[in-house]
Amino acid sequence: MACSNCQQNWFWKKIGKCQRCMDQLTVLSVLCWVVWFFFFKQDPRSIESIALIIAGFAFNALLFLHLWMKFVILPWRK
Known about the structure:
The protein is an all-alpha fold. The protein has three helices and no strands. The chain crosses the membrane at residues 21-40, 46-68.
C-alpha cells in the first residue's frame, strides 16, 4: 500500500487507520458475495462455492476489525 500507515511493520499499528484498505475490503466483500449469490448458490458444496464463502467471511472479518478499531477502540483511547 502507498500510505504511511500501511508501510509499518506491526499489524496493530495499521489496522483501522487506512481508508484505502477499508474501501478495498468493502469492494472485495461485496463482490465476493454477489458472485457467490448469482453463480454458486445452487451448489454450495462445490469447491468454488466453498472458496468464495471462506473468502467472503475473511473479507468481512477483516473489514469488521478495521471498523471496530476505527470507530470504537481508537476513539476510546483518546
